[in-house]
Write a structure and sequence with these properties.
Layout (H helix, E strand, L loop, with lengths): L8 H13 L5 E5 L6 H13 L14 H7 L6 E4 L23 H14 L15 H11 L9 E5 L7 H12 L5 E7 L7 H5 L2 E4 L5 H11 L5 H10 L4 H8 L3 H16 L3 H12 L4 H22 L12 H10 E3 L1 H14 L6 H14 L1 E3 L3
Parallel strand pairs: 1-4, 1-5, 2-3, 3-4
Antiparallel strand pairs: 6-7
């Protein structure tokens, strides 16, 4: 049902109209920021195309056998294609892409697909799954030209299609040049400019927009009952209109990490070096680069809020529940906010260069301190 998709009312109307017109394109590209419902809409449209009893003439019922099977990726009518790691049997053309997976990768694949079944906004993450393999496109080729069920559409959803390698992309292009009438390809991507222009030119494009702050807030309130309103606002701001990003943030202790941002800033500004050291140890203790990146992102957001407050743009502040502390900082200190933000962004880029995390954070905090001066009088 269309209610399974958060927002995207314009997209829903487009897809309803396409369905009711009976003129179904042979290929669609759903594009826009990651985590805003492209895969969810692709599954929903696949259900509608094959639903035995559509509601209002343009909405999947979610109750018939086809809807239930498609929703759980168990239907012969719908194939969901993703990037997979290279298997030992990759050169064996008689095997399917899943049969080529190594025994250690297959359970991870099943686990990720189960998460996707339960949450169509889930971002599938399989180690070393760097591209959509040629074997996956060859499988589409074998199946797309087979005679399907009368009155039904075979749907092939290629998720994050920008991950196709050159071989895969060229193989897909051949399918797009001679598409069968009873099948439809739906490509989803957050990087449409990474696709071959010839692929884009053979597909009908539908753009998905970032969700509004209110839509993200409603999602948080519906799915995370114990979150306070002030905290929900903070999470919604950080989510940048993406359900996937929101879920990722909600699954991690961002509030605790934000407190460490304020604690470390206070420590370095008041010369409490032992406290600064223990705070840095807390952040880098597990040598988790993603955790350090999250800390730096929150640090950057804090100085962007300082910048917004300095220029009177209070509506732009993300840490709205910390408005008093932001005001106090601006009243007591002068800071070179643009320089500080650039320093933080450089540090984020350096993380992937195998820097010593503790030393990098120490150096960064001292550089930040050198760009902050206490106001006199």
């Amino acid at each position: 049902m269309w209610s399974n998709i958060v927002g995207q009312e314009r997209v829903k109307e487009i897809l309803k109209n396409v369905f009711q017109s009976g003129k179904i394109p042979h290929a669609l590209i759903f594009y826009g920021t990651e985590g805003i419902g492209k895969d969810a809409a692709a599954v929903e449209f696949a259900k509608l195309l094959n639903c035995d009893d559509p509601l209002n003439g343009n909405e999947a019922c979610d109750k018939c056998k086809n809807c239930i099977e498609i929703n759980s990726f168990k239907s012969s009518l719908v194939k969901f294609i993703i990037a997979l790691p290279t298997g030992k049997n990759e050169s064996d053309e008689d095997k399917s892409p899943l049969e080529k997976l190594d025994k250690d990768d297959f359970p991870i694949y099943l686990e990720e697909m189960e998460a996707k079944i339960n949450d169509k906004y889930h971002k599938i993450s399989i180690p070393k799954a760097n591209d959509i393999r040629i074997s996956s496109i060859r499988q589409i080729k074998r199946e797309i030209y087979m005679t399907g069920r009368t009155g039904k559409k075979k749907v092939f959803i290629i998720s994050n299609c920008d991950m196709m390698n050159p071989q895969s992309a060229n193989s897909l292009l051949k399918i797009l040049e001679e598409p069968p009438k009873d099948s439809i390809l739906i490509l989803t991507t957050s990087k449409i400019n990474s696709l071959l222009p010839t692929i884009i030119g053979r597909c009908q494009k539908i753009k998905f927009n970032n969700l509004s702050r209110q839509q993200i807030l409603d999602y948080i309130k519906s799915n995370y009952e114990n979150v306070k309103d002030s905290e929900a606002g903070f999470f919604a701001e950080l989510s940048d209109g993406s359900i996937t990003k929101c879920s990722d943030i909600m699954g991690k202790n961002f509030l605790e990490l934000r407190e460490k941002v304020l604690e470390l800033l206070s420590s370095v500004l008041t010369n409490q070096y032992l406290k600064l050291g223990s705070g840095i140890d807390f952040i880098t203790g597990k040598k988790d680069k993603e955790r350090v990146k999250q800390f730096l992102i929150l640090l950057s957001v804090w100085f962007r809020d300082i910048l917004s407050k300095t220029y009177g743009n209070d509506e732009m502040i993300i840490n709205k529940d910390k408005a008093d502390r932001i005001s106090k900082f601006v009243s007591n200190f002068e800071s070179e906010n643009y320089k500080i933000i650039n320093l933080i962004e450089e540090a984020i880029r350096d993380i992937d260069s195998n820097v010593f995390l503790d030393l990098m954070l120490y150096n960064l905090m001292y550089k930040i301190k050198s760009n902050i001066r206490r106001k006199i009088g």
